[in-house]
């Protein structure tokens, strides 16, 4: 169980999120606000302040809202993206090592597999080939490979059964 003292942040605090690749380099970094901490779950809200072009997500316009769900004991995180109007844009799920906190920085290591979920809950699993390539390149231990596969299966179950956070009304 996490508590705000272990996290180093409390609801309402602005923090930095760093997504790393397995080799230790920062892949992406952004600011977000802590909205909720309960058990191993940390929920953040962010707003895109500039246009982002993403290979899988397309163009994300300024003002797009992001609710981000991280767990310190799960091998995935989930982003719920909403248009500036508030309408659901999509969900994007990352398979990764569990999130960690260091003062006002939340970080995770991205393991490359992703799931893109449309507003109607149809979904596509992305980047399995990238996961396999990087698993070989960086020598992911067998335990991490197994946990990544289990995380992907868990995500698909959550999506198909509309469990939290896919049950949250936008």
Largest sheet: 7 strands, mixed, barrel
Number of separate strands: 11
The gross shape turns out to be globular
Helix content: 10-25%
Order of helices and strands: HEEEEEEEEEEEHH
Provide the gyration radius in Å: 15 Å
Low-confidence stretches: 1-5
Provide the structure class. alpha+beta
Q: Counting H and I runs of at least 4 residues, what is the number of helices?
A: 3
How much of the sequence lies in strands comes to: 35-45%
Compact summary:
The chain has 170 residues and is of the alpha+beta class. The chain is built from 3 helices and 11 strands.
Written account of the structure:
The chain is α+β, with helices and mostly antiparallel strands and 170 residues long. Helices cover 20% and strands 45% of the residues. It contains three helices and eleven strands, in the order H-E-E-E-E-E-E-E-E-E-E-E-H-H. Strand 7 and strand 8 form a beta hairpin. The longest helix is centred in the last third of the chain and has 19 residues, at 142-160. The model is unreliable at 1-5 (pLDDT under 50).
């Amino acid at each position: 169980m996490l508590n705000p003292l272990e996290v180093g942040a409390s609801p309402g605090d602005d923090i930095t999120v760093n997504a790393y690749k397995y080799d230790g380099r920062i892949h992406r970094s952004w600011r977000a606000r802590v909205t909720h901490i309960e058990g191993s779950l940390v929920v953040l809200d962010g707003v895109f302040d500039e246009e982002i072009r993403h290979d899988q997500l397309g163009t994300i316009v300024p003002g797009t809202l992001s609710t981000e769900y991280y767990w310190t004991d799960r091998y995935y995180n989930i982003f719920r993206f909403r248009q500036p109007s508030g309408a659901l844009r999509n969900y994007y799920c990352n398979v990764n090592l569990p999130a960690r906190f260091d003062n006002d920085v939340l970080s995770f290591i991205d393991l490359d597999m992703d799931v893109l979920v449309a507003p109607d809950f149809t979904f596509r699993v992305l980047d399995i080939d990238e996961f396999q390539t990087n698993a070989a390149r960086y020598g992911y231990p067998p335990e991490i490979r197994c946990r990544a596969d289990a995380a992907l299966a868990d995500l698909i179950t959550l999506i198909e059964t509309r469990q939290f956070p896919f049950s949250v009304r936008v």
